[in-house]
Amino acid sequence: MSRTGLARLLRANAHHGTIPRFKRNLLLRDFLPSAGCSVQTMGRAALDFMVFGEAYLQRLTNVIGQVLELRHLPAINMRRQVDGGFLMLLPQGRELHFEADEIEHVMDYDVEQDIYGVPDYLGGLHSLLLNESATLFRRRYYNNGAHAGFIFYTNDPDLTEADEERLRQQIESSKGVGNFRSMFVNIPGGNEKAIQLIPVGDIGHKDEFEKIKNITRADVIAAWRMNPALAGIMPENAGGFGDIEKIDRVYSRNEIRPIAQLFLQLNTALRVDRRIGWRDPAAAAG
Questions:
Q1: Percentage of the chain with pLDDT > 90?
Q2: Three-state SS at 89
Q3: Which domain covers residue 61, as residue numbers?
Q4: Where are the alpha helices (DSSP H) in 30-114?
Q5: pLDDT, tens digit, 9 for 90 and up, residues 211-236
Q6: Would 73 be classed as within a structural domain?
Q7: Distance between CA atoms of residues 228 and 214, nearest Å
Q8: What angle do CA 250, 21, 282 make, to 5 degrees?
Q9: Are the CB atoms for 106 and 57 separated by under 8 Å?
Q10: Distance CA 116, CA 269 (A)
Q11: What is the pLDDT of residue 200?
Q12: Residue pair 180/137 in contact by the 8 Å Cβ criterion
């Protein structure tokens, strides 16, 4: 799975691009920074974890080998080596190598392999791409004026060649970008059915477009295991989604706190005064 491809897909859909950052923000909301791991470091590592299913941090040590601080390394450029070490891909084909004990690798286990982490949303990529394709097609439709893309048919035997050429130029110059192109045809003495345009399907229709967008949006949100009330979706009924504070508490307890548990393994590399932790929202509320 291409790391660069996964990163670029964040811009393919509004929900797919914002949900990982929202989950990162929920994780940081109760994060307790320390001298060993700042909010910025944890924020970057958490976003990597949401997008790629893994995060990498380098141990920065003093002269006697004590870990002073953890530094984030971009997961998009990190690779594991056969000998157990790690390397970072650099520009111009260069590589930066790390020993196995220099790197803390936080990953979400995958049942097919235990080398790299794998994000959970991969099953929703087809819906994500279909959503993007529908949006792009609709955008081209409107950029084209939502009117071109037709055959202009005449059967006037008295139409001069000069007039015909002027009409042809005016109509063909109105074509828009992408999938739409207009055509002028003159058949002297032809009948009304000399040329017929029979469309197979048209995503420009409102109902079909909305159906595709709604279905694929639901798939994307489900792939992220995100509650619709927290995903910026407007409710379709007067009752809404319910108590947003309860939804937030349940979602944070079931989805965000387990992710925090994965990051707590970093404390094995840090001294006591540099350990990281998370505030218990329930205890704080009490």
A1: 56
A2: strand
A3: 3-121+245-285
A4: 39-52
A5: 999 999 999 999 999 998 898 887 77
A6: yes
A7: 12
A8: 30
A9: yes
A10: 20
A11: 47
A12: no
